[in-house]
Amino acid sequence: MEQDIRLIRQLIADHPDWHRTRLSQQLCRQWDWTNAKGAYKDMAARALLRKLDARSLISLPPPVRSSNNAFRHRNAAAIVLDQTPITAKLAELTPVRVLPVANATQAQLFQGLMQTHHYLGYSGPVGQNLRYLAWDRHDRPLCGLLFGAAAWRLACRDRFIGWDQTTRAQGLSRIANNMRFLILPWVRVPHLASHLLGQVSRRLSADWQQQYGHPIALLETFVDSSRFRGTCYRAANWIHVGETTGRSRNHRPGCPRVPVKAVWLYPLQQAFRTRLGLGASER
Predict the structure, then answer these.
(1) Is the peptide bond before 62 cis (omega within 30 degrees of 0)?
(2) What is the pTM of this model?
(3) Counting CB atoms within 10 angstroms of each CB, which of 35, 45, 227, 253 has the fewest?
C-alpha cells in the first residue's frame, strides 16, 4: 500500500493542474483497474483518493464542483407523492413489478424516497451498484432497493462460504450487498416485503451481468437488530449466519462502536461456492 501511496503522491506532484477526475482516470490506466466489461473503475478510484486525502496520506487538489452528496441530491428530496395509505391485500396489487432504475426521472425519485424516508438516509453508493423501484398494478411506487459492493471482510459470512483470504479476494465481486430496502411508510401490505425480495433475487444476477459483465452468486445484507427482526428475510428464505462485531470498515481503536447487525445471506444458485472461488469439490 505504501508503494501505491508514493505513486499517487508523485502523480499529483507531476501534474499540479490535474483535477481529481483526471487523477482517478490515470490511476485506473496505470493499475489496469477495470470491471468485467473492461470499463475503468473511475468512481472506485476517486473514492480511494478521497479516503487517502481524508487521512492526510495525500493532498488532493480542491474539487472542481462540490462532491457533497447531500448538496447534489437536495432537490431529489423535494419530490411530492400521493401518500394515501395502501393497505390492500397483496393479491389486490399484483402484478407487482420490480424494475431497475432506468432513467433520470426514476433516479431522482429513488434518491428522494431514500433521503426522505429511509432511516439511514442516502448519499449515493460508490462502485458497482443496482437500484430498483417496485410498482403495483396501478403504477404506484411501493418500494426501493439498492444493491452494491459486498463487505470486504465478514467473519460469519466467510466461514459460511468456506473462504480464506485468497479465495475471498477472488470471489468477492460475485456478492452483492442489499444496502437499502425501503417500503414506503404509507404502504402496509402483508407479505409484500418477502414477495419483493423474491422478485429481485430472481433477476438481479442477470441484471448485474448485463450492467457489469459478470453474474452474482450470493446476496448479503445487514439488519440492525435494535430496530428490526429480519422477518421478511427469513420469510424469503434468506439464511441468518451470525452478527457483525460492531466495528465499521474504518474502525480505529478508541472509536465508538457501531450497532451490531444480524448478517443474512441468500445463495442465488446451488453451486454458489464454486462461483465464489472455491473448487468444485467444496460443499
Answers:
(1) no
(2) 0.72
(3) 253
The C-alpha cell that represents 188 in the structure block = 402496509
Residue whose C-alpha cell reads 431514500 in the numeric block: 114
- Whole-angstrom distance, CA of residue 185 vs CA of residue 237: 24
Q: Name the residue ranges covered by the structural domains of the chain.
A: 2-67, 81-275
DSSP 133-157: EEE-TT--EEEEEEEEEPPS--HHH
Cα distance between residue 124 and residue 43, in whole Å: 11
Q: Which three cell numbers stand for residue 47?
A: 473514492
CATH tag, 81-275: 3.40.630.30
Q: Any idea of the CA torsion for 176, 178, 180, 183, to the nearest 10 degrees?
A: 130
| CA atoms of 234 and 54, how far apart (whole Å) | 39
Q: How far apart are CA 257 and CA 253, in angstroms?
A: 10
Pairing of strands 97-100, 130-135: antiparallel
7-22 confidence digits (pLDDT tens): 899 888 888 888 888 8
- CA-to-CA separations, 103 to 131, 134, 205, in angstroms, rounded: 11, 15, 20
